[in-house]
Write a structure and sequence with these properties.
The complex is a heterodimer.
Chain A: H1 2-54, H2 57-64, H3 67-72, H4 79-103, H5 106-149, H6 155-177, H7 182-207, H8 209-221, H9 224-228
Chain B: H1 9-16, E1 21-27, H2 31-48, E2 54-60, H3 67-73, H4 78-81, E3 92-97, H5 104-117, E4 122-125, H6 135-148, E5 152-158, H7 165-179, E6 181-182, E7 191-194, H8 195-203, H9 216-226, E8 231-238, H10 250-267, H11 269-272, E9 279-280, E10 283-284, H12 299-312, H13 314-318, H14 323-333, H15 344-359, H16 365-387, H17 392-408, H18 410-418
Parallel strand pairs in B: 1-2, 1-4, 2-3, 5-8, 6-9, 8-10
Antiparallel strand pairs in B: 4-7, 5-7
Helix pairs in contact in B: 2-3, 2-6, 5-8, 7-10, 7-17, 9-10, 10-15, 10-16, 12-14, 12-16, 15-16, 15-18
The chains are: A mainly alpha, B alpha/beta.
């Protein structure tokens, strides 16, 4: 009778208790890791913010043309704030991975392993996006200045188009790196890019026939303005 | 120096030995005009310096039109010169290709190197596209160096009131305000200088920069002044030459010429900051009236360029110009036709804020220089409208007035130069 009791109730109960204890222990470990990690992430943010301020990171960002974009998001107060929060985010990410690892379940172990393998791809994609952002801004500004100095009426539109195209290319490369919707993305980009080129050609050819003619004429005959003006600047 | 001069030239230079006076002519496809320049230089040497051993050097950038052959084959008609004295030594003549970055600066570097190697006492450099050069120019540019111990002689030309608008609106006033010397044509292109100044130029490490291109003229002038050499100017009359601006477009011109001034401001920060006011430099030659080539200006195109620039580049301007200056520019866009004006003080603030933005690298420097073009066109349009009915003398007074504002506002430049530009300064005045 006692054996039956043990088998029917005590053993499962003991197993349940052990399982609960291990879950509670794992949960407590996770909670402790998250709390301590949260404090660590907060400290990292504060220290890094002060460090970046001291190193005049805001000025550097301003000279590179990032400061305005960062401030325009209305999420970050300054470039230093952005840098500090990004670092905090990284620390948080590591803490969460650490906590998941501490949970020691099959699912979390697999998740952590997959994520760790994915990290180089994420970093590469982030770098591609960063470079894309820098290059798109630079090229956009170059096109804007050249177009304004050539007195083209749609200078801003043209520059904006160049910025968007370069950024789109960067996004497609980044997503390709992350292996997200590879074929669909490439096809979509090819269709979109081709569409823009065709639309541009049609718009220029039909919508701006006069402009196209004048432009071609000026190229073939030399610009009218240059003929009528002989101003020597130096 | 070994690397500056072509190997094949060393033997020829040894053969010539030391010279007292060297005339340098940089060229690139100037076969049409260089013969006249060589003739004028040779006649000048024959007539005014018959006892001084001389050399004419053509430093060529790889002409394909036979420029070098023209230099070497041009003959001087001695009979027409009515010479009193006859030369003891013949005038040597060399035409050599230069090495390095293609441009006038690299051509000059070869001339400096040759002057140093031959221990030349004085050098004269003249453009190869000149149509108004006379033998007297050689005397006016070399004489003060050889006989009065001057180190640098800038040209003083009579020009049409609309001619040289970068010189009149930026370079001359900046030269005056920064270094306190009233050199009227600091980027004239034809200069006289001493051998020791040529050696000083040669030692500078600028030959891969815009100085090697068309920044050379302003670099030579400002370096001579800033390094404390004796500077003067000579009256040469009118300058007629083939219109050939650097790079063929304003953007290159701004990068090479105005950019060079801003770079030199960094190099000689400790020299220009303590200076206030300006003084005239000694003038040589006999001023006389000459007719100048008429110049047509399309004011409407320039004001349109200005208005579009202020509208389309507003975001770029806002990143380094003060709010007061930006507001002044926007106000100017609301003026149209003959009423269009860009006031002196506003223009001076624009230039000083650009210099400061260049110094603080507020923007990519190429982009910064490009963004100045529409504002310059606005200022040029304003100037043309203002002096349209004025005679040359009044126009000169008008330029002097602008220079006065540049000098008066120098503390504003120093303030912005020393602080982070782009933010409103407590002392910024509304233009």
């Amino acid at each position: 009778m006692q054996g039956l009791l043990e088998r029917a109730f005590l053993v499962p109960f003991e197993r349940l208790r052990e399982q609960l204890a291990s879950v509670v222990e794992a949960t407590l470990t996770v909670v402790v890791i998250l709390v301590v990690g949260g404090l660590l992430a907060w400290t990292v943010r504060q220290v890094l913010f002060r460090l970046l301020k001291t190193l005049q990171f805001d000025r550097l960002a301003e000279s590179m043309g990032f400061a305005r974009t960062i401030e325009r998001t209305q999420i970050f107060r300054s470039a230093s704030d952005f840098g500090a929060r990004v670092a905090q985010g990284f620390v948080w990410l590591i803490i969460v991975l650490f906590a998941l690892n501490a949970a020691n379940t099959q699912m979390t172990d697999s998740l952590v392993a997959r994520f760790v393998n994915y990290v180089p791809d994420i970093l590469t994609a982030a770098l591609v996006l960063l470079l894309g952002s820098v290059i798109s801004r630079f090229l956009g500004r170059s096109v804007l200045l050249a177009a304004v100095n050539a007195q083209w009426a749609g200078a801003r539109l043209l520059a904006g188009g160049v910025r968007v195209l370069v950024m789109m290319l960067a996004v497609v490369i980044a997503l390709e790196q992350l292996q997200i919707g590879r074929t669909a993305l490439l096809t979509a980009f090819a269709i979109l890019f081709g569409g823009i080129v065709v639309a541009g050609a049609i718009a220029f050819g039909l919508g701006a026939r006069d402009l196209a003619r004048e432009w071609l004429q000026s190229k073939m005959k030399g610009r009218e303005t240059e003929e009528e003006e002989v101003l020597r600047h130096l | 120096m070994e690397r500056v001069l072509p190997e094949e030239l060393h033997g020829r230079l040894k053969e010539i030995g030391d010279v007292e006076l060297l005339v340098g002519i940089p060229s690139y496809n100037n076969a049409r005009t260089i013969g006249q320049v060589v003739r004028a230089a040779a006649a000048g040497l024959e007539k005014y310096f018959p006892n001084r051993k001389s050399l004419i050097v053509n430093s060529d950038g790889g002409s394909k039109d036979g420029t070098r052959e023209v230099v070497l084959s041009t003959e001087l008609d001695h009979d027409s010169l009515l010479l009193v004295a006859h030369r003891v030594n013949p005038i040597h003549r060399i035409s050599t290709p230069y090495h390095g970055v293609p441009g006038k600066g690299s051509a000059f570097r070869t001339i400096f190197a040759m002057a140093k190697q031959l221990n030349a006492k004085a050098c004269v450099v003249v453009d190869s596209d000149l149509r108004s050069i006379t033998p007297h120019w050689i005397e006016l540019l070399a004489g003060p160096v050889l006989e009065r111990e001057f180190d640098y002689i800038a040209p003083y030309y009579l020009r049409h009131k609309y001619d040289g608008t970068i010189t009149n609106g930026i370079i001359y006033p900046m030269t005056r305000a920064l270094f306190g010397k009233r050199v009227r044509q600091p980027i004239g292109g034809d200069f006289g200088f001493s051998g020791r100044l040529a050696a000083c130029y040669l030692e500078k490490n600028v030959w891969e920069s815009d100085v090697a291109r068309f920044g050379i003229d302003i670099w030579m002038t400002l370096t001579a002044i800033a390094e404390g050499f004796r500077v003067g100017q000579s009256y040469l009359g009118a300058k007629l030459h083939d219109a050939k601006d650097p790079g063929g477009d304003l953007t290159s011109m701004f990068r090479q010429v105005v950019g060079s001034v801003f770079s030199l401001m960094e190099n000689y920060e400790n020299k220009w900051q303590p200076l206030t006011g300006s003084e005239p430099v000694p003038m040589f030659g006999f001023p006389f009236e000459v007719g100048v080539e008429p110049i047509q200006v399309n004011v409407e195109r320039m004001t349109k360029a200005f208005t579009q620039g202020v509208k389309d580049l507003r975001e770029i301007y806002a990143s380094f110009l003060s709010p007061a200056t930006l507001a002044g520019l926007e106000e100017a866009t609301r003026l149209s036709g003959d009423a269009f004006r860009l006031p002196d003080q506003l223009w001076v603030h624009v230039i000083y804020e650009y210099a400061s933005a260049f110094h603080h690298r507020k923007l990519d420097r190429d982009h910064l220089m490009q963004s100045l073009v529409p504002l310059y066109l606005g200022r040029t349009a304003s100037f043309v409208l203002e002096v349209r009915e004025s005679p040359a003398l009044e126009v000169e007074e008008r330029i002097e007035k602008l220079c006065g504002v540049f000098e008066l506002e120098k503390p504003y430049l120093i303030e912005r130069w020393g602080t982070r530009a782009g933010k409103e300064s407590p002392h910024a005045r509304t233009a």
